[in-house]
Every structure is written in C-alpha cells, then in structure tokens.
Automatic annotation (TrEMBL):
GO biological process: ultradian rhythm
PROSITE patterns referenced in this protein's UniProt entry, alphabetically: RRM
Sections of the chain in a coiled coil: 278-305
UniProt similarity note: Belongs to the ENOX family.
This protein's record includes keyword Ubl conjugation: no
Any GO CC annotation of this UniProt entry: external side of plasma membrane
Signal peptide: none
Domain RRM positions: 113-192
Keyword terms: Biological rhythms, Cell membrane, Coiled coil, Copper, Electron transport, Membrane, NAD, Oxidoreductase, RNA-binding, Secreted, Transport
The name this protein goes by in its record: ENOX2 protein
Amino acid sequence: PADGGRNLSLDSIPMGLPMSDPTAWATAMNNLGMAPMGMTGQPLLPDFDPALGMMTGIPPINPMMPGLGIVPPPIPPDMPAVKEIIHCKSCTLFPPNPHLPPPATRERPPGCKTVFVGGLPENGTEQIIMEVFEQCGEVIAIRKSKKNFCHIRFAEEFMVDKALYLSGYRIRLGSSTDKKDTGRLHVDFAQARDDLYEWECKQRMLAREERHRRRLEEERFRPPSPPPVVHYSDHECSIVAEKLKDDTKFLEAIQTLLTWIERGEVNRRTANNFYSMIQSANSHIRRLVNEKAAHEKEMEEAKEKFKHALSGILVQFEQIVAVYHSASKQKAWDHFTKAQRKNISVWCKQAE
C-alpha cells in the first residue's frame, strides 16, 4: 500500500501450518471451536466434537457460507472480509471465533495514534510485539509493561484502525503450547498526552489557515479605496470649477471641493475662488429639485398603474370564486364525482 506498511491481507502467505505438523493444526482449530480441516478440506479428526452441542463429525456453521444471510460485523474496507491465520517470523496469530460478537472498544480520543494492547503472552518480547504490529504501519514507540500489556504509538491515525483489526486474535509463540507462550490480544484506543497535544496543534494550525483564507477572501471582495484627492492649486481649482458646471462630473467635483474646505485650503487669497465654486454648486439645486419632482410624478403614475392592474386581477379572482360557488350548489354538485368535488372544494379555498 501507499502508506508503506505491510498489508494484513494474507493472499501471499500460506494459510496453513506445514503438513508435517498436523497435530498443531488440529490443536489450533480445536482452540477456535472449529472442526480441524486439512489443506485439502478433509477432516483430520472425523469424530471431532468441540462440545458446542453439535452432532459428531459435522463442522460448525460458518456465517460467511452463501445463502445464510448472516451479516458479519463492520470492518475497515481495506481489510479482508474473513479473518485468516496470520504467520509471523516468531509467532502465529489465530483469528477469533466468527460466532462471537466483535470486541468492545472505548470512545475514540481526538487525534488518537496510540493503542492499548492487552492479553500478551508472558514470554512476549518487545521484538515480537513490533513484529506483529509493524504490519499495521510505522511504529513510533512501544511502552511495554512488566505485566501482559503495552502501549503502541503509530505514525498516523489510520494505522490505529488496522491495529484494532487484530483484537481478539489468539497469539502463540513458535509452536509451543505452554500457557506462558500463548495469549488473546485485546486492542483498544488509548488516551495519550502526545496524541492530544499534536491534535490540538493541528487544530490551531487549521484555524490559523482558515482565518488567513477568510482574510484573503474579505480583501478580495472589499471595494477599492477611492483615489486620493489632489492638493489645491489655482490650476486644479479651474478644473474643478469647470467640472461643477457639468452634470455628469458634478458628483466628483463636489467631493473634491468638500475635501479642500475640510483641509483648510480656504484663506483670504483663495476665498473668491471657493465662493465661485460654492455658487456653481448652488446652481444645481434647481436641477435636482426638478429631477425629484419628475421622479415623484413617475412614482404616482406607477402607483396608479399598479392599482388598476391589481383591481383587474381581483375582479378575475372574484369571478373564478363565483364559478366555484355556483358549481357547489345542489343542482350542479350532484352530477360531479367524489374526486371532482374534492378538487373543486380545494380550488375554491385556495382562490378565496
């Protein structure tokens, strides 16, 4: 896979122990509560009875057999549908009984990259733990307890899901049947301060990126700043005076005039020029009043037009409702079907 970890799908790994050791294979299948089967599918022990209340010689039902319609528990999409035996260099992992419910897990902590692994063999070493769980991805650290559990920290969060897939597997070191060399793995999410700190740092980084993106978006849609107003001079004064006489450039010129006055450009030398510009601005008042009166007249005409159009619409509505009422009278109503009466009643309510 792209993440560099070894895939847990074991198509390339032999799915049985060597036939030179059929007893070990039978013991493993007996531990799982399943009839021991050879590599060819034939029973190694024809009279096997796993004490599951089944008839002697009949293997237990596999929930994955076609036609039974039993849905297996949900598993990660890149994991094999049926758990198989996993062979490692120093140990062997036997899958849990498919009849049992999936192992329970605690609530996943935010940014979890660390798992708790319990049920390890007493003789299990850190090297064996690494050998088993490095198949799930890059292992950053292993903190092993003196008892039969440890904590494993992975490089990425998705590797934790692959490690949880191994929960419930029985582990056996080599071919030994000693109790100290066997165990049943229990893998669960673990709370780690390192994981929480990295997750919080990542959230803060994402928040900074979001604020930066939002700021760029706001700046992109912010209207451009108005151009700076030129400083007063006799030449610029003459230009503004000409613009004040032009209706199309009046707004720009009046803003410049206002800025000059607020800046304190008016003095004894420039007072006459400013007075003439103010006089030009005053001459536009009559034009603006006439425009306002014209717009008010257009508004009144539009109101009258709207009233006439609305009265015509209401007259038509009244006529339609009158048709519904006439159709609802006894002499016409009895001739309509039940569905037609229902539609007419609905239409009448809507129109009213």
